Amino acid sequence: MADKTNRTRRWVLLGGGAAIVAGFAVREYRLIPPVYTGGQLSVQDAHQQAVSGEILLVDIRTPREWQSTGVGQGAHPLDMRRDDFEQALADLTGKNRDAPIALICARGVRSARLSNRLTQAGFTNVVDVPEGMLGSAAGPGWVRAGLPVQHNTGETE
């Protein structure tokens, strides 16, 4: 009898553990960042518009990433993890929340998420560069496209 009880307990524990793992998997799936439904630019268009001054291109990656690949020519490095990120971005735009802004990260995931957040915060002219610096399903990315980079490791103040 005790042997049957131990087997039943094992099955209950295994079933409970499987349910917990499945619950975490569903939770993680729901946390996948949404695709940005606003405007998008290719890396070539982002580069051309940033260099010509048509758009403020912001590289939202980390300082370590900037050091690794450089920052795209014409882009302003601004770490998205900064507590005052929105204020620093507003400073870059001269407090103009209607200014054209393009966001780029490594592979387009963080830039899509942050584009959504900035749009919700009242920035009205945000576009995403979904290829990122390293490429994604959207394209080869800035580096593989052979676009120029600056090896400036300092953040835009």
Automatic annotation (TrEMBL):
Q: SMART domains this protein is in? A: RHOD
Tell me the InterPro entries matching this sequence. Rhodanese-like_dom, Rhodanese-like_dom_sf
* Residue intervals of the Rhodanese domain: 51-151
- Species, as recorded: Ruegeria denitrificans
**SUPFAM superfamilies associated with the record:** Rhodanese/Cell cycle control phosphatase
Supply the CDD domains for this chain. Answer: RHOD
Domain of life according to the entry: Bacteria
Query: What is the protein named?
Result: Molybdopterin biosynthesis protein MoeB
